[in-house]
Design goal:
- The protein is α/β, with parallel strands linked by helices and about 625 residues long.
- It is about 40% helix and about 20% strand.
- It is built from 19 helices and 20 strands.
- The strands form four sheets. Strands 13-12-11-10-9-8-15 form a seven-stranded mixed sheet, with helices on one face.
Length: about 625
């Protein structure tokens, strides 16, 4: 439960139809196995104590008595388990019968939550036997004690940010499900006890429904549907179990009766997402009551959940290609609109032969193609100086030749040396002035070239560099439109790779060589063999680490301590714990101290859910302290 991680489980024991004692034994055995794996919330199937497909047998008192006794056994047998347990039982009261989820914790029956929407259509005939949730608050006598029967919330006393709500099967399929009101009242884990039969296409629809509910309600949705043992007189059940979190499917199983699945949900992340959304406002149309608090030991969840090493990059190759096309379209469309608004049909870009400038250049070419502007109106400038290598310069020229754009070389050695004399720099000491003077000289040339042709300077800096402040203030930091501003470094690489995969020779070979070139600003003299001497990731840290930090820091609002824990698991074997800690501290320090550069960014398109524009997603003072973050 540390850092908000909670292990939840979905259990689908094989049903012994009508044999409540046997069903109780199977639930108890499975619960003990789930508890041994650290499950804190265990969800079983609808009417799992009796079986769902008993039809008019639910009207028999013998079955109702056996069900009540079986539930009593489950409560007693699991009193020593540190788990919130939800099992399905029929509950008679005042001439009505309710299809309920019994909520159990440490030997106590906390409440009975009845099904609200009773289906009586197609293959369902529940209205013949069951009544919907009573309108007024109801206390029934069950197992010899008064028990609340109705909708409401269950909050963990030891971890108050964990709030559980319950609905049953059909409740999820209606226009206004109970879970919507539960979520607005604070529930961030919705448990659904279900018995949903299989017909062609229904599993996919059910899957999409669960994912949608978890996304629209910004919650974890834990869904358990009955499987083997239910009557197959007319229907078949697959034991479809799902655990989704804010639109993402964490775990799923079908056709696997007698098993359970688990997943680690992140309560902290869900609550952070809700706080970010001004439209997710607390307070349902009818406020839900707290039925009862439940208790769990606050222990560290042994994580079995995995986290992608590159969270900005889709894992599936098919999704990756689709995502690449979409991102390029967004970047290109943004630039097209800016060019039209500025009445500019020329663009100027500093094409260094590095990764970022290559992507910005390719996007610019795409924008000109859509606008019908001649490619020669794109002026690609290479501006060699002290650190420029023949490899990057050659690649820049080859790209321009392959795509038919204008290409110019402006050697800035003499201009920078004159600048050194003007400001009293010895021209030998390779300090920050030595480096930044080159970057600012290049920006001066780009801006004035744009003025000459009536064009726009296209910015090349990416999201990762802006987060770290890895840009020269009023140097490469500045442009007239920054097409890469919303693209993190790890994604830049995949976008250029996508361009290479759909290009023909000789452009394809050039792009692959750009991908193989070390990331560098090339501001220090090259090594004796002509290779790049200044490697960015040696100085500021690996970008795959920084993008990992960036995503969970900005998108999820996680404290660095939690991010460190996740990174240790994700990058095990790739980086040592000390290395991860070193670069995480660097990320936090630079993110705070370099905000002043982000406060005056040029315009550029937002691409993903993480953006850093001071006019949009991210606003913070430039002089904020980072002490609390380093200590978290």
């Amino acid at each position: 439960m540390k850092d908000g991680f909670i292990k939840v489980g979905v259990g689908t024991p094989e049903i012994a139809l009508g044999n409540c004692a046997e069903n109780a034994s199977r639930i108890i055995a499975m619960l003990r196995d789930m508890s041994a794996q650290g499950v804190k919330i265990a969800v079983f199937t609808e009417l799992g104590v009796t079986g769902y497909t008993l039809e008019d047998l639910f009207l028999q008192q013998a079955l109702l008595n056996a069900s009540e006794q079986a539930l009593g056994r489950i409560i007693e047998a699991t009193a020593d388990l540190d788990t919130l347990v939800l099992v399905g039982v029929p509950v008679p009261w005042d001439g009505s019968l309710y299809n309920c989820a019994a909520v159990i914790n440490r030997g106590k029956l906390l409440g009975l939550v009845p099904k609200t929407h009773i289906p009586t259509y197609a293959e369902f005939y529940e209205g013949r036997r069951f009544s919907p949730t009573p309108r007024q608050e109801t206390v029934v006598r069950y197992l010899g004690q008064p028990v609340y029967l109705g909708q409401g919330l269950f909050r963990c006393a030891e971890l108050p940010e964990l709030v559980v709500g319950v609905e049953l099967c059909e409740d999820a399929w209606v226009p206004s499900p109970p879970s919507a009101a539960l979520a607005l009242s604070g529930a961030n884990v919705i448990c659904n006890l279900s018995c949903s039969n299989e017909v062609i296409g229904k599993a996919q629809y059910r899957r999409e429904l669960v994912q949608h509910l978890s996304a629209s309600q910004v919650c974890a949705y834990v869904y358990s549907s009955a499987g083997g043992g239910e009557s197959t007189t007319d229907l078949v059940f697959s034991g479809h179990g799902m655990i989704a979190e804010n639109g993402a499917m964490l775990a799923e199983q079908r056709w696997s009766t007698g098993t359970f699945l688990t997943a680690d949900i992140d309560i902290q992340k869900l609550n952070t997402d809700r706080r970010r959304m001004s439209t997710f406002t607390g307070g349902a149309p009818e406020e839900m009551n707290l039925i009862s608090p439940f208790h769990l030991d606050v222990t560290e969840t042994k994580l079995t959940r995995t986290f992608p090493r590159t969270p900005f990059v889709p894992a599936s190759r098919d999704n990756l290609e689709e995502r690449c096309r979409e991102i390029i379209h967004i970047q290109s469309a943004g630039l097209q609109q800016r060019l039209k608004a500025a009445h500019a049909n020329h663009a100027v870009i500093g094409l260094s032969g590095g990764l970022d400038s290559t992507l910005a250049y390719l996007v610019t070419v795409d924008a000109f193609r859509h606008l019908g502007y001649p490619p020669e109106n794109i002026i690609a400038l290479t501006m060699p100086c002290f650190g420029t290598t023949s490899r990057t310069k050659s690649n820049a020229q080859k790209m321009a030749e392959a795509l038919g754009t204008s290409f110019r070389e402006v050697d800035i050695h003499a201009a920078v040396q004159q600048h050194f004399r003007d400001i009293g720099h010895d021209g030998v000491t390779t300090d920050v002035t030595y480096e930044n003077s080159q970057a600012r000289m290049r920006t001066l040339i780009l801006m004035d070239t744009a003025n000459l042709c009536g064009g726009l300077v296209i910015g090349t800096g990416d999201l990762s560099e802006l987060a770290l402040g890895w840009a020269t203030y009023n140097g490469d930091h500045m442009s007239m439109y920054a097409v890469n501003v919303g693209v993190p470094k790890t994604l830049v690489r995949y976008l250029v790779d996508y361009f290479a995969s759909v290009s023909e020779e000789p452009l394809r070979s050039v792009l692959y060589d750009v991908l193989d070139t070390p990331v560098s600003p090339e501001l220090l003299p090259p090594e004796e063999n002509g290779e790049i001497a200044q490697r960015t990731e040696d100085l500021v840290g690996p970008y795959e680490l920084h993008d990992f930090f960036l995503y969970y820091f900005m998108r999820c609002g996680f404290a660095p301590g939690k991010i460190y824990r996740m990174a240790l698991l994700t990058f095990e074997g790739a980086y040592t714990a000390d290395t991860i800690k070193k670069w995480l501290d660097t990320f936090v320090r630079r993110f705070f101290t370099q905000q002043f550069k982000r406060s005056c960014l040029p315009d550029g398109p937002k691409v993903g859910s993480v953006a850093i524009s001071p006019r949009g997603d991210w606003r913070m003072p430039s002089d904020a302290s980072y002490a609390a973050w380093l200590d978290s």
